[in-house]
């Protein structure tokens, strides 16, 4: 077996030119860790924040990537076997230790979820982090219940589209937003019950649909729209702050009594792989394969095109999840 591998290394925070493909030693798993042959990895705003220097606790140079999909390559003293299909995510990947932007990655066994699927890797690679974030936000962050109304602010993001799928499976009525008029039909066909065109404020439009306000709201855009999302939520309803598509993390001069509507609850979500049960992942993949779950649009890139993929993500050039294949498709 080769003793080296190719990896995308962020040499220092900055522009896409700081993403450099290098040859690195093949990483060896220590006790409690496994090595995965990466077949595909998704791009995430978290990695963009790291590249732009907005993430804390990251040292450089660093192999980015908070998720990966692939095959177990080495799993000493583990219940996993070489050849098993797995995904891994979060827990410091791409931040405190090297992540998924590589031909191989070594991660703690606790962050690995096995599955079985005949789906192509470009489809599987779009699922792990988006599903984990959507499922964790709706179940842990919002405790969403059957029959409740849910507002998804930022519905055409990859997490937003996954959240539509999860929420409909949980039995909720979904209102999703988009800033782009040409994406309204895409949200409707994806399963959203109502689509609201986001002009910067949506609370008034949402309350035309649900006069008392929604039971739950998932905030994926960030702090610029958070207060308006709170205003679209009913008394004793809950808003979960999960995403930062706007790249703005902080509410300036936050005065809670003035900022928060009377009786509306605000929480946040930022969990990990432990929040995604294996049966939920398997069921989602099975649903994609059967056509009962709608796959969101995916932009597929080759490993050597990592800079252009990051540029497209940063500048919102395309619609949907960006996935990188480590090897050309056969």
Question: Would you mind describing this structure in some detail?
Answer:
With 330 residues, the protein is of the alpha/beta class. It folds into 2 domains: 4-126 and 296-325, Quinone Oxidoreductase, Chain A, domain 1; 130-268, NAD(P)-binding Rossmann-like Domain (Rossmann fold, 3-Layer(aba) Sandwich), CATH 3.40.50. The protein is built from 10 helices and 16 strands. It has helices at residues 45-51, 121-124, 128-141, 158-170, 184-190, 203-209, 223-231, 256-259, 278-290, 306-314, and strands at residues 4-10, 19-25, 33-42, 62-63, 67-74, 85-89, 104-108, 112-115, 149-153, 173-178, 194-197, 214-219, 233-241, 265-268, 298-302, 321-325. The strands form 3 sheets. Strands 3, 5, 6, 7, 8, 15 and 16 form a 7-stranded mixed β-sheet that branches. The chain has a 6-stranded parallel β-sheet with strand order 11-10-9-12-13-14, sandwiched between helices. Strands 2-1-4 form a 3-stranded antiparallel β-sheet, with no helix packed on it. Helix 3 (128-141) crosses helix 4. The radius of gyration is 20 Å and the shape is globular. The model has no long low-confidence stretch (mean pLDDT 95).
């Amino acid at each position: 077996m080769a003793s080296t591998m190719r990896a995308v290394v962020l040499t220092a925070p900055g522009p896409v030119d700081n993403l450099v493909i290098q040859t690195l030693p093949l990483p060896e798993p220590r006790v409690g860790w496994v090595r995965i042959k990466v077949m595909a990895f998704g791009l995430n705003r978290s990695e963009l924040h790291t590249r732009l220097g907005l993430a804390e606790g990251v040292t450089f140079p660093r192999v980015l990537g908070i998720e990966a999909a692939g095959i177990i390559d080495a799993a000493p003293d583990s219940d996993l076997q070489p050849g098993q299909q797995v995904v891994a995510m979060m827990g410091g990947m791409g931040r405190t230790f090297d992540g998924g932007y590589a031909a191989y990655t070594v991660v703690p066994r606790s962050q690995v979820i096995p599955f079985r699927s005949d789906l192509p890797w470009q489809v599987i690679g779009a699922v792990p982090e988006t599903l984990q974030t959507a499922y964790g936000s709706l179940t842990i962050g919002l405790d969403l219940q059957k029959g409740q109304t849910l507002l998804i602010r930022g519905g055409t993001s990859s997490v937003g589209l996954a959240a539509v799928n999860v929420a409909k499976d949980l039995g909720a009525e979904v209102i999703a937003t988009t800033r782009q008029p040409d994406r309204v039909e895409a949200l409707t066909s994806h399963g959203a019950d109502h689509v609201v065109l986001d002009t910067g404020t949506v609370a008034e439009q949402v309350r035309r649909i649900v006069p008392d306000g929604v039971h739950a709201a998932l905030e994926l855009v960030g702090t610029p729209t958070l207060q308006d999302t709170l205003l679209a939520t009913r008394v004793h309803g809950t808003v979960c702050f999960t995403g930062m598509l706007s790249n703005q993390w902080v509410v300036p001069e936050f005065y809670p009594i003035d900022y928060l509507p009377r009786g509306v609850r605000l929480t946040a979500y930022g969990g990990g792989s432990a929040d995604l049960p294996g049966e939920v992942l398997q069921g989602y993949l099975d649903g994609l394969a059967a056509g009962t779950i709608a796959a969101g649009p995916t932009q597929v890139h080759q490993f050597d095109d990592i800079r252009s993929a990051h540029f497209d993500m940063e500048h919102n050039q395309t619609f949907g999840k960006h996935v990188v294949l480590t090897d050309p498709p056969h």
